[in-house]
Amino acid sequence: MKNKPLKITPIKGRPMLHWVGKKPLDVVRHFPAQLSESVGVQNPPAEPSYREFRKNGYNLLFHGDNKEILSSLLIAGFRGRIDLIYIDPPFDSGADYVRRVKLRGVNGNGNGNGNVAGAEHSIIEHAQYEDIWANDNYLQFMYERLVLMRELLGDRGSIYLHCDWHKNHHLRFLLDEVFGAENFRNEIIWCYHDKFATGGKAMDKNHDTILHYSKGEHFIGNEIRVAKPQTTRRAMRKKVAGRTVDILDEKGEKIYKDYSDKKLDDVWTDIGRSIAVGEHTGYPTQKKSELIERIVDYGSEDDSIILDCFCGSGTTAAVAEKLGRRWIAADLNRGAIQTTIKRLQGVMAEQNGDLLETKDRGFIHYRVNNYDYARQAELQNIIRSRYGIRTDRKDGFFDGTVGDQLAKIVDLNKPLTRLDIQIIKDEISSNRPDETRAITVFCNGSETGIIADLASEKNPINAITVRDIQQDGMMTAQPAQAEVTITKKAKQATVTIAHYISPTILARLDIDRTLFDEQIDDFRAQIDCVLIDTDYDGEHFKIVESDLPKKKTDFIEGTYVLTLPRAGATVAVKIVDMLGEEVLETSP
């Protein structure tokens, strides 16, 4: 399918907000989805379509920029088909969100395997996303995606946007503009009573806001009753000759009824914020299942389609799966997608048993424009730590300072180019004429001659020094390596994982590879899960067997005996480590 433009319905009414760089979203580009993985789906289509989605029982998970994913869904026939959208987007909080990753077995598992020498080597802060926005980029980012979501909503559909005090006032205006102020339904206050007091002069912030807008006048809104803090006794009454009177018993005394529940209103104080231990994924902004379940119960029906395009740890998809709703989920972060896949396999196993028996409730994972923010962010975190870069959140161009110099980390997915250097010089000359500090540029390789050319410049005011992480011996560019043997006999195969090493994990632990065996007793401490396809076609990975340890102190088994669909079938083993890096090994 060609990358063709997609027309968007114009917004009616006058703009509610203005910001620098505001532009309407009249046309968007469509990028075809690429089939990546499936669970419980035997013959998934190469690209998603509403027709196939509705005819079959599977659900959809997308990895990529949700602007492009939403556009792909419109092209695929989902316009006007979504009944409920829940999103928990970035809040513009100015924070780096990280998942604290602990290697498996670091607390011991009965026989001491997996212990990492030294407490400082037990936990890795794994970057998930930066909630840091320059100028008015946040408003344009949200505006464009809300327009696309409006296109996808059906006539009875609603959007529930989760936010907090950082941007709820701006987001309310954006929703008014995109969906119409007349379609505002509720400002839901989620007061989490289990938050610890932080003290200080200002009052503690103890609630989030969920903004509910419908597509039109008629929308899905089921009656939900919740428990009252205290039971209320009320006299029973009836109408007699147009008047409401008390109902009396044989003795002429009023008859009372106890009420222990009430109709749901827009202040929710009965759902805490703490995640149950068994449900916690470690994802930094994970929301409680009970919260999402209430929204889904209220705003959808049995045959509704639920969409969450900032899915994070996959709570919305997991709730929809448990409630039997159809769902579509998406995220830019590969770690979020992996967490969601693993979590949904657990839900499906609880409800259906063997993954091979879930043909009516499987899901398909597609990639749209193969983005991988997590890898880039992880490399940047390693660089900041290794070189002592002090981050400056107020600077929208430079990454901070190192010593008395400005620091700039360029795109680490490609070598440093002369254009990169020119952009830095243009920033100084155009926007910082009084800047006198020198600049250190961090890169992952460079074009031939750049470093020499910079060194030959005579007495520049802002001298530029290049630090190439490859030349400095950092192993960030090296992929993980696994020793996997796959033996086959007739329709049976045995898979054995003999070793695994991740240079990225070693770099984050700040230990040398030569010291690995001394500090980590069992290589399986690095591995989060193992996924197996017993009939791999070379492109589409069908997850038919998985090893998903339930406890953080448990290891993968490492050896698997498998039944093949036929003799000679290709076996593929996907190893996912604690930082989300994947290694794929296949049989001959």
Helix content: 10-25%
In round numbers, the mean pLDDT is 84
Taken as a percent bin, the fraction of beta residues is 25-35%
The fold-level CATH name of the largest domain is Rossmann fold
Low-confidence stretches are: 93-98, 108-122
In total, the number of strands is 31
- Which structural class is indicated by helix and strand composition? alpha/beta
Rg (C-alpha, Å): 27 Å
Number of helices: 12
CATH top level class name of the largest domain: Alpha Beta
Spatial order of strands in the largest sheet: 15-9-10-8-5-16-17-4-18-3-27
What characteristic shape results from the CA principal axes? globular
Largest sheet, in brief, is:
11 strands, mixed
Q: Would you give an account of this structure?
A:
By secondary structure, this protein is of the alpha/beta class. It folds into four domains: 284 residues, 3-Layer(aba) Sandwich (Rossmann fold), CATH 3.40.50; 39 residues, no CATH class; 96 residues, no CATH class; 106 residues, Immunoglobulin-like. 23% of the residues lie in helices and 31% in strands. The strands form eight sheets. The chain has an eleven-stranded mixed sheet, sandwiched between helices. The protein has a five-stranded mixed sheet with strand order 19-20-21-22-23. The chain has a four-stranded antiparallel sheet with strand order 28-26-30-31, with no helix packed on it. Helix 10 links the parallel strand 22 and strand 23. The radius of gyration is 27 Å and the shape is globular. The protein starts with a strand and ends with a strand. 37% of the residues are buried. About 4% of the residues have low confidence.
